[in-house]
Design brief:
By secondary structure, the chain is of the alpha/beta class. The chain is built from eleven helices and twelve strands.
């Protein structure tokens, strides 16, 4: 009898464990969303570093200033450079390889103390990178590839970013929770950028790991979203209908041009497909989320803070020190929390005192 009771108890325990395991994906996904949706009020970045290196002129090479993330970082660099006492020139690559090549050539001709690569894959401009290294011009970058921090292969003193894989995981987890565990997802990415493919792959992996379905993986150039997304949206609606519950994109820009096509199909701003962006927290994304118009979530990066970090990293390079090691925070922005952390200004700007912290390091 005791043996039979033990077997029955064991069997019951296994059934209980199985039911708990079945519930785990939803529990785990909710935990991730809640973790990144809370306000960011504590400074966890560097508190020591070199004093301001004086008399520097730097160049920002912006991949495309029409991209809200790139523009936000550029603005942050200009603000931080003013605080540290440097001169800045911003050159716009205008969303094309040719434009970025020309801008990089112009940057090197200016013989700046340092160059910031803002929002394009460093490997794309390999010849120019070699020229900059030969001229001993320190290079720091934002979203220049999948490597965070020093990238010796591409000659970058530091590549600044949040944890892109966590950004992607948070976006996918939100969609899974919102769909009550049964999302039908279309993922939008751009294979021009290694970081974009890495983010999209992570979202696909996470949705499938949780038990959701990826309907399609769409590779379309981010620089051509204004031309491509209206018709692409219509075609995908015709193909998948109501089975398309959520869109996951590597950048908010994909959703800038979906609204009219969704509205023409009879969709309201809050109907499926529900749009979720794994970066970067553009002004237009905030406006859509606040208005409930064809986007419910962006996993935002602290663009202005990252601009300050880029200036700090360059200052460390000028001083001959190592990079700071700082990994900036990310934030799941929804209609429920959009009034915190800079939301009223349509940006994720943590209330953690980062400007004062950097000024203190620089002796300003």
């Amino acid at each position: 009898m005791k043996r039979r009771f033990f077997l029955q108890a064991t069997t019951g325990l296994l059934v209980l464990c199985a039911s708990q395991a079945y519930a785990d994906p939803m529990v785990d996904a909710k935990a991730v969303v809640e973790k990144y949706a809370t306000p960011v009020t504590k400074w966890d970045g560097p508190t020591t570093g070199p004093k301001a290196q004086v008399g520097k002129t730097i160049v920002v090479l912006a991949g495309d200033l029409k991209n809200g993330g790139i523009l936000g970082v550029s603005n942050g660099v200009e603000e931080a450079a003013k605080a540290i006492g440097w001169q800045v020139k911003v050159l716009d690559g205008a969303g094309s390889i040719g434009g970025r090549t020309a801008a990089f050539g112009q940057a090197i001709a200016l013989q700046p103390a340092g160059i910031i690569i803002d929002g394009f894959d460093a490997i794309e401009q390999a010849p120019a990178l070699e020229q900059a290294r030969a001229a001993k011009i320190p290079l720091v970058a934002w979203h220049a590839g999948p490597v965070i921090g020093p990238d010796d292969k591409n000659g970058l003193f530091a590549n600044v970013s949040t944890d892109a894989m966590e950004v992607s995981k948070a976006a996918a987890d939100w969609a899974f929770v919102d769909a009550k565990g049964k999302p039908g997802v279309i993922i939008f990415t751009d294979s021009t950028y290694a970081i974009a493919i890495a983010k999209a792959d992570k979202m696909k992996q996470e949705i499938e790991r949780l038990g959701g379905k990826v309907l399609e993986y769409v590779d379309t150039p981010i620089a051509e979203t204004s031309q491509r997304m209206p018709q692409l949206t219509t075609s995908l609606l015709q193909k998948y209908g109501d089975s398309w519950t959520h869109s996951l994109a590597i950048n908010d820009l994909y959703f800038d041009f979906m609204g009219p096509s969704l509205a023409s199909a009879g969709k309201s701003g809050t109907d499926a497909p529900i749009n979720v962006a794994a970066g970067d927290g553009s002004q237009s994304a905030y406006e859509r989320i606040r208005a409930g118009q064809f986007q419910k979530v962006t996993v935002a990066e602290p663009l202005n803070l990252q601009g300050w970090q880029l200036v700090d990293e360059l200052n460390r390079a000028f001083a001959g020190e190592k990079w700071s090691g700082y990994l900036s925070p990310l934030h799941v922005v929804t209609a429920d929390n959009i009034q915190s952390d800079g939301g009223p200004k349509n940006t994720f700007d943590p209330d953690n005192g980062y400007k004062d912290q950097y000024k203190k390091i620089w002796g300003k």
